[in-house]
Structure formats: structure tokens, C-alpha cells
Amino acid sequence: MVGTPRDEGGERRWDIWRRLKAYFPSIEEAQSFEAVAKSQAPRPEEPKLSSLLETAAKAVQQLWYHVHASLTAAGELERFLQVEVPVQAIFAHRQGAGIAINRTAASELLLHLRDEKYDAYQRVAQALGVSPTGLTFWNISSYLARTDAGHLADITDGGRLREAFKIASFHSKFARDFLQFADATRDEVILRRAAGIEGRVYPTFAVIGTVSGRILVSDPYLQQLRRRYRGLIAADQGKRLAYLDYAQFEPGILAFLSGDDRLIQAYGEADLYTALSQEVFGTEEMRPLAKRMFLAFCYGMSSEGIARLVAGPADQKALLAFQNAVEKFFSAFPGLTTYRKEAEHALMRDGSAGSLLGNRRHRTSSGALSSKERRWAVNQPVQSTASLIFKEAAIALEQTFGKDSILLPMHDAVLMQFEDNGAFEANKRVAIDIMRAAFARRCPGINSRVTAGLFSD
């Protein structure tokens, strides 16, 4: 309903406790209920408990009347009731049931992770001349002048800098080393949090975790574990894991939204990331980097900007070669450039951008679009539509296999568990068909692909 992200003040506006307080007879009663609900205070004895719950129920009811009216006015009620509420029920069940943990595997993985982190720490410390402890993508910029990634120092947004590092890692040793150090530091926190619990972990699921509607998992952040360290997650007794992934999810949605016939055809016939890797680098082995480059271009980065990240600032010949290769690849899909311009125009005109079923992000400024707004003019429709398709697929999967089948949303993939018997492969094929049908419902005419791969190494 709010349609603004955390860094633009959205969190304060969507905070349920802040909104609910206005409907209590007093601030003291509102604070008392919040503390009890969050287990931050002892539950009061009767009859005080019943009185508090009755007051809270009336407050929730009054808040819902106003939220219902706002959702209706914003055109978000259908999505909320038909998509978000059922998905919330699925992951509320999983949050309560927890996820099985292989503690032996977790302990072994921690040993490997400790060595990886130490090696990366040493390389980063040598490059910077100081200890990297406490450094993140949000505060590393002032140190970059000492490294071969100095040309990235003007990027102060941590999220954007991480993505820039991933592309720049092709030429920058420091970018590679710091990415490894940051990832190992994050993975260590996740593994220690999960390994310290006897047999199961109970993460928190935020079904509307971002302004695009993507589901977030926290405490611990299991979604963020790199594949090599996911082996700590296990299936329940008698079950077996199945990892189902929307291949090239965002390019498929972009192909539909842009209506570019050649992009639709190319998406249906080949792997676009592999094709870009072959065009730019002359090999398919750079596909992970090509994926970053493809999405960076689609979300507004220029071919020159991408080339600078890939080639670095010094090698002008290589920079020009990369730029020409990127431009040659994307020149085959003129509808993409047209769609980007149309999306920016629509954001200027409407003041918001959204999915195929609401989930809008609203501007918080006026006048010409900022570079950030130009990026999310395209990003929001794609990401929020991806969220919609994924959630509708999750609802259909739960209806077919039950709530116990769904373990984790993993970006464009879902980790499931089926009975470990002769029906396992058949169940997996049915699940793939369900996910493809969810894609086809929102993006008809696009031949989507869903792969069944390994969840961990």
C-alpha cells in the first residue's frame, strides 16, 4: 500500500505497531500489547490479559477498516487477498515448523569457511594496509584509492557497489578478494546461527520483504548462503530435497513486457547469458559475469558504463572492445531500448511503476527522474512481476503438495521436499509444470524454462 522502500522512509510508514497505536485508548496499552506480542514482556495474568486482548482486537479491526479502504483506493486489494495472504499462510507454517539442519555438515562447513575467510582477510589487509574487520560495501569506498578498484570509489550506495564489484571482479583482484571476504563473513554468521540450534532452525519469513514484493528470509539469512555452504540444510525424515529454479527469470519477463520479437525468439531458443558471454569474451565460461552485465544494461546502465566496470579505467583498447561487443549484442533487440524509454516516461507521467497486478512503487520526488529512478522504472515492473509469478506458483505448489513441501524461497528458485520414494521424480515434474503454468498465466507467449538442479555443492 505504501509503495516506498526502506531507504526512502517507507519502513516508518508501513510499521504495523506504529499504525496500530493510533487505535488503542492509550499509548500505554498499545505499548503493553506490543511488548507481550513480541515476547519482550511477561504475559499478564487474568483478567488483565483478556482485557488487553479485547482492546487489541478492537484496535486491529479498526486498523483493518482503514487499510482495506486504502488498499481498495490504491488498486492493491486483489493482490493482497488473493496472493499475499495465502503466501503468508504458507510461510507462517514453515516459520513455525522450522527447517531441518544437518549439524555434522554445518560443523564441517564452518571449518572450510574459516579457512576461506582467513585467506581472503589476508589478501584484503595486504591490499589496504589495514585490517578489513568491520569494512562492508557501505564503508569501503574511502579505501578504494589504494587498490585496483579505485574507479569505483564514487559509488556510495552499498547495494550498487556490491553489484559493481561483481562485474569489476573480471579485471580487479581487489574486487574479487573483497567480495570473497564479505561473502565469507556473511556466510559465517549464517552458519554459526544455524549450527547452534539442535536439529532445526526457525527463520523469519517476510512475505512482503521488499518494495518489489520479493520474499526475504532472516535470522538466519539462509537465502544468502552461497551454494558451497548450503549443505547444512536437510530434508525432514523420509523426505528428499528438490531445488526448482526459474532459468533466466528476469530476461523472460523483460521479453514479455518489451514485446521485442527477436528477444522473445532468442529467449526461447538459447541461453541469453551464454550468448552474451560468447559475444563479449569469446567463451561461454564467463556466463556468471555476462548475467550481471545483461541485467545491468536492462536496468539502465550504458554499454560504456558496463565496459568500464569490466575493463577497468586503464586499458582504453579493451574498454572500447568490450563496449562495442555489448552494443553489438543488444542492438539485436531494439525493443529493449524502446521499453526502457517508455518505462521512464510512464514513471514521469504516473508517478509510480508496478507489476501486472498492482505492487506499485511510488516516486518521493518531483521533476526530472534521477538516475536511481530511471533504474527502477524498469526494475520495479520486472521484479514485482517476478514476485507475483513466484508467489502464485507457491500457492499452486502448496495446493498440490501441501504446506510441508515448501521449505525456502531462494530468489528465483524454491527449495521443496517430497517423499523419498518412487514418486519423487514424477512429483518433481509436476512441480515444474506448475511453475511454468504460473509464468505462462502472467506472460503468455513466452516459453519459460524451469530447471531442477543441485541446491548445494
Describe this structure in words.
There is one protein chain. This protein is an alpha+beta fold. It is 57% helix and 10% strand. The strands form four sheets. The chain has a four-stranded antiparallel sheet. The chain has a two-stranded antiparallel sheet with strand order 1-2.
List the helices and strands and how they pair.
Layout: H1 10-14, H2 16-21, H3 27-37, H4 48-74, H5 77-97, E1 99-100, H6 103-128, H7 158-168, H8 173-195, E2 200-201, E3 204-206, E4 216-218, E5 239-247, H9 249-258, H10 261-269, H11 272-281, H12 287-298, H13 303-311, H14 316-330, H15 334-350, E6 352-355, E7 358-362, H16 371-401, E8 406-410, E9 413-419, H17 424-442, E10 449-453
Antiparallel strand pairs: 1-2, 3-4, 5-9, 5-10, 6-7, 8-9
Helix pairs in contact: 3-4, 5-16, 6-8, 7-13, 9-10, 9-15, 9-16, 11-12, 11-14, 13-14, 15-16, 16-17
Structure summarized in a few sentences:
With 457 residues, the protein is α+β, with helices and mostly antiparallel strands. The protein has 17 helices and 10 strands.
| Rg (C-alpha, Å) | 24 Å
Beta-strand portion reads 5-15%
Number of strands: 10
Main sheet, how many strands, which sense, barrel? Answer: 4 strands, antiparallel
